[in-house]
Amino acid sequence: MDIKQIDKQYIANTYARFNVCLTGGKGSILLDEKGKEYIDLGTGIAVNSFGIGDEVWKNAVIAQLDKIQHTSNLYYSEPCALLAQKLCEKTGMKKVFFSNSGAEANECAIKTARKYGADNKGKEYYTIITLKNSFHGRTITTLSATGQDVFHEHFTPMTDGFVHATPNDFAEMETLVKTHKCCGVFMELVQGEGGVMALNKEYVKAVAKLCEKENMLLMIDEVQTGNGRTGALYAYMQYGITPDVITTAKGLGGGLPIGATMLGERVQDLFTPGLNGTTFGGNPVCASGALSIIERLDEKFLEEVRQKSEYIFSQLKNARGVKSVSGMGLMIGVETEKDATQIVNECMEKGVLVIKAKHKVRLLPALNIPFKQLQQAIEILKEVIEK
Ligand SMILES: *Cc1c(COP(=O)(O)O)cnc(C)c1O
Questions:
Q1: Distance (Å, rounded) from C-alpha 22 to C-alpha 386?
Q2: Which residue ranges have their beta carbon within 6 Å of ligand 1?
Q3: Tens digit of pLDDT for each residue in 52-85?
Q4: Do 247 and 111 touch, CB atoms closer than 8 A?
Q5: CB of 181 within 8 A of CB of 127?
């Protein structure tokens, strides 16, 4: 049975896969079909927050599987309610809409902003400002929000009502607000797919103030930056702002699909029954796993995440062959003299899995990666970059 051949024949040709079939692992160690071991610095794109087969997460998931695997949203369900409560208590947000992915969480944010605009400013106030180089998902509307033309090609017409601003250019943002009828700003604080670029704090604070002044929603896409990834529970907490809407997904479920759109005070009562919905969203198994993740992201744990981050930055910043290191927490982009694809392949050869973001090598290790394994992986990465 040649899995790679079957995959090539039967899976839609949307992915350029690496020549590896992953079959198992534990923590930050992955195994391929030949039994080769890898130290994982990619976590399935910031999803496996506590690595492979984490015991606490697995027990939470299995315990729920033993009770009931799905209820639909026609009935009350404990894991979903407790997860929403925990998220609100930890962020100060007021209500949560659960879905299954980042794109869906973002769709809900976009609906929120449009209804907010219509309710409070007038029907024509539907434009949302997003940033150039952003990534917000693959549905037609989240693609439209995504400020990269390459993603729009082949799929026009895009959904109306998005304009794209240059990151960190506040004057341009002000101009766009004056020239369009806007209901909100939607942005990543660290652009992940765009090359792991953190926005500067003064800019973000100024945008937050502008939103307040112009009665627009400040919406933060924390699909990738959320859930401890940047060294805070959510990245916005390091920017001194209070968003009206926060979306998250990826690391929230620890490996199972879940998306969340958190609604702040100004929009907590915006939705009424029937205005949004999903069959799978808030699935009890996914929610139980997610709750076990969020419960463990306390200050002490996040301090360890920040220490590991400092270690990586200090190791790579002045290393030979490295042009720059960007990002926050355990979401790191490394710009290298050598081609990034070549680095990814050579690292794989040597038993370390890293991924790419644009022309950079991207590191997204498990938040609980043992320091020794991290050290080992970074040594190998440095060797590969330098040669
Ligand atoms: C991955 C990502 C998305 C899309 O999430 P999916 O779960 O793939 O739909 C949206 N926004 C950001 C910032 C992301 O990193």
A1: 28
A2: 101-103, 106, 135-137, 188, 192-193, 221, 223-224, 249-250
A3: 999 999 999 999 999 999 999 999 999 999 999 9
A4: no
A5: yes
